[in-house]
Amino acid sequence: MFELTLLPDTLAICRLSPDAAIPGWAFASNFYSITRTADELSVVCHQANVPDNIQSEADWRGLKVQGPLAFSMVGVMASLTAPLAAASISIFVVSTFDTDYLLVKQAHLEPAIAALAAAGHSILRPA
Description:
Blueprint: E1 3-16, E2 33-36, E3 41-46, E4 55-65, H1 76-86, E5 92-95, E6 100-105, H2 109-118, E7 122-124
Helix pairs in contact: 1-2
């Protein structure tokens, strides 16, 4: 089973046009993720930094899977997402070279933590 750490900040997931410049406000966070595709520029960052005129989904909380995780590991996301799916909790996932981050809506944070704990995962809440 995995150990996860609750991130301190409330996050927003933003959608910008695919040709938009990467905004400076995206970098003003301890945690941010930027992904550009042919269809969009997605930015995940501290929600307090997001301007009002940006299309976004607010009130997300992040759970960091303690890593690093080897690329050869199989079933990491399945073991984390299955209990959340069974509890009808929607997620947004951000993956990095070393680990994965599960984002859940603030309103579903406690049920998500309970579902993950019931599946054998441990969640740390830093002070």
